[in-house]
Amino acid sequence: MNKMNSINETAKLCKENNIGISRKLLLNLAKKGYIPCVKAGRSILINWDGLMKYLDSNTIAPEENKSPIRRISA
């Protein structure tokens, strides 16, 4: 069985694990359907493993030479 946590519990776990996600961002991600969650009454329960999979699959790889300044040939 997967671990389901409330928004507040998930935000606390994110803080403990040094994951830079706030309670407000978790709420927005859940409401937009980006992370797996279940609405139980007035509470939203977030699947912790699903959140970690979302973060793993949606990370941006660092690119070389990402400067806004570009060379031009004259």
Tell me about this structure:
The protein starts with a strand and ends in a 17-residue tail after the last helix. A 3-stranded antiparallel sheet has the order 1-3-2. It contains 3 helices and 3 strands. The longest helix has 10 residues, at 7-16. The model has no long low-confidence stretch (mean pLDDT 84). The radius of gyration is 17 Å and the shape is elongated. A hairpin with a 2-residue loop joins β2 (37-40) and β3. It has helices at residues 7-16, 23-32, 48-57, and strands at 4-6, 37-40, 43-47. By secondary structure, it is α+β, with helices and mostly antiparallel strands.
Summarize the structure.
Helices cover 41% and strands 16% of the residues. By secondary structure, the protein is α+β, with helices and mostly antiparallel strands.
Blueprint of the fold:
Layout: E1 4-6, H1 7-16, H2 23-32, E2 37-40, E3 43-47, H3 48-57
Antiparallel strand pairs: 1-3, 2-3
Largest sheet descriptor: 3 strands, antiparallel
Radius of gyration: 17 Å
| Distance between the ends | 63 Å
Q: Proportion of β residues?
A: 15-25%
Count of individual helical segments? 3
Oligomer category? single chain
Total count of strands: 3
**What number is the mean pLDDT?**
84
Give the CA-based shape: elongated
Q: Strands across the major sheet, in which order?
A: 1-3-2
Task: Name the poorly predicted regions.
Answer: none
Helix fraction, binned, reads 40-55%
